[in-house]
């Protein structure tokens, strides 16, 4: 079986042109012409146009599936080439440092959540806030351009693994950090991730639903993450915050699904492409979102005081070590 | 054939030209698409025929 994207696009475009020709131009011409012919068309044409539209939707659906598969396959291929050539190695992950910060009040606003995530920017540290029966985990973005040569797992290798639908060292480290912080499997957990951290959060949430991640993930917030290729039905409630000037959320080539459990909120902080992706920009957007109250379900996730711990992730020596 | 019938008839031809090339897209979905396009083209030709037969 063969599905060539360009061929399906060609068919879809031909159908759109034909439907437009029939629905618009024709009716216009007929309206100025014979009423008997108009009646003939009014009876017979609508069913043809609606069948054409159904075919167009079917083509769109197939193209959508191809886009998802293509982006995953592409990331997987790059990874496989790296593994076979020895460039990408997957050494074991470990928590190198655990620091108990003390106590903190629940964030309460999206801006406060962004502020806490911003503190981790550029590090390989995960923050866990453990409340009475719930927890919030904060996962920062990529902090190393390496494909597996350093001890920092928040690297390009993790990006490829997450984009290709595989489990990364950061996801495994997240599980270790939640366990080390004393979070119980029945506790309700919200994951908050920036960029790569959002990819990891979505992946862990999906694995949680299938029983392959040992914690109950009930909410996910992503900031500037390319997560549109994921299937909403496999996830809990998701809030994706995007900056229109940030190109990173578009890297997977797909818009976020329009689903009841997936809220995408966009803001505009006009900066250069690097600065537009940084948490500083998302902090500004979060403040604007707080004014609208649209993210209340997420910002009000936890209440009361939490025990706060920071866990620095580390990778063991790679195979060349 | 006047302008009106010609548009309907030409639309039918467009649909036949849109039938998937089996070297580029094949399988059950492609076959169903090809079949539906043939049926739609047939219906449009019938509509064009009906228009031609209307005498004003």
Structure description:
The complex is a heterodimer of chains A (321) and B (56). Helices cover 45% and strands 20% of the residues of chain A. Chain A is of the alpha/beta class and 321 residues long. In chain B, helix 1 runs antiparallel to helix 2. Chain B has two helices and no strands. Chain B has 56 residues and is an all-alpha fold. Classes of the chains: A alpha/beta (321), B mainly alpha (56). At the A-B interface, helix 1 and helix 2 of A face helix 1 and helix 2 of B.
Provide the fold topology:
The complex is a heterodimer of chains A (321) and B (56).
Chain A: H1 5-31, H2 35-84, E1 93-105, H3 110-118, E2 125-130, E3 134-139, H4 156-163, H5 169-180, E4 188-194, H6 196-209, E5 216-223, E6 237-243, E7 262-267, H7 273-277, H8 279-292, H9 296-299, E8 305-315
Parallel strand pairs in A: 3-4, 4-5, 5-6, 6-7
Antiparallel strand pairs in A: 1-8, 2-3, 2-8
Chain B: H1 3-17, H2 28-53
Helix pairs in contact in B: 1-2
Cα separation of the termini of chain B = 14 Å
For the biggest sheet of chain A, the summary is: 8 strands, mixed
How would you spell out the order of helices and strands of chain B? HH
**Coarse structural class of chain B:** mainly alpha
In the predicted model, the low-confidence regions of chain A spanning at least 5 consecutive residues are: none
Rounded mean pLDDT score of chain B: 87
Greatest contact between two chains: A-B, 34 and 29 residues
Strand order of the largest sheet of chain A: 1-8-2-3-4-5-6-7
One letter per element, helices H and strands E, the order of chain A comes to HHEHEEHHEHEEEHHHE
The rounded Rg of chain A comes to 24 Å
Helix content of chain A: 40-55%
* Alpha carbon gyration radius of chain B: 14 Å
Give the helix/strand class of chain A. Answer: alpha/beta
Largest sheet of chain B: none
Helix content of chain B: over 70%
Poorly predicted parts of chain B: none
The count of DSSP E runs of length 2 or more, i.e. the number of strands of chain A, is: 8
Number of helices of chain B: 2
Shape of chain A: elongated
């Amino acid at each position: 079986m063969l599905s060539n994207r360009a061929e399906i696009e060609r068919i879809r475009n031909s159908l759109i042109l034909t439907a437009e020709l029939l629905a618009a131009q024709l009716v216009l011409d007929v309206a100025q012409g014979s009423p008997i012919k108009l009646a003939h068309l009014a009876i017979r044409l609508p069913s043809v146009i609606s069948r054409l539209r159904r075919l167009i939707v079917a083509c769109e659906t197939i193209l959508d599936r191809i886009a998802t598969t293509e982006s995953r396959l592409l990331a997987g291929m790059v990874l496989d080439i790296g593994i076979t050539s020895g460039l990408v190695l997957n050494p074991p992950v470990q928590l190198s440092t655990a620091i108990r910060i003390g106590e903190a009040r629940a964030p309460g606003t999206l801006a406060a959540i962004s502020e806490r995530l911003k503190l981790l920017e550029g590090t390989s540290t995960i923050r866990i806030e453990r409340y009475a029966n719930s927890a919030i985990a904060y996962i920062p973005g990529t902090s190393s351009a390496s494909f597996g040569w350093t001890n920092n797992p928040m690297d390009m290798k993790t990006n490829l693994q997450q984009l290709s639908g595989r489990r990364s060292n950061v996801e495994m480290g997240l599980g270790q950090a939640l366990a080390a912080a004393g979070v119980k499997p029945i506790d309700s957990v919200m994951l908050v991730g920036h960029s790569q951290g959002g990819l990891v959060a979505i992946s862990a949430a999906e694995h949680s639903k299938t029983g392959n991640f040992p914690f109950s993930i009930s909410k996910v917030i992503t900031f500037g993450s390319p997560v549109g290729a994921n299937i909403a039905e496999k996830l809990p409630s998701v809030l994706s915050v995007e900056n229109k000037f940030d190109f990173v959320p578009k890297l997977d080539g797909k818009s976020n699904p329009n689903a009841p459990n997936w809220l995408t909120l966009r803001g505009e902080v006009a900066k250069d492409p690097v600065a537009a992706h940084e948490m500083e920009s998302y902090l500004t957007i979060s403040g604007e979102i707080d004014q609208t109250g649209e993210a209340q379900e997420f910002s009000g996730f936890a209440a009361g005081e939490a025990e706060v711990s920071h866990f620095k992730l580390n990778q063991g020596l790679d195979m060349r070590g | 054939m006047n302008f009106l019938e010609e548009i309907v008839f030409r639309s039918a031809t467009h649909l036949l030209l849109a039938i998937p090339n089996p070297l580029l897209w094949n399988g059950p979905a492609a076959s169903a698409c090809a079949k539906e396009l043939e049926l739609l083209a047939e219906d449009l030709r019938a509509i064009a025929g009906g228009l031609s037969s209307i005498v004003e």
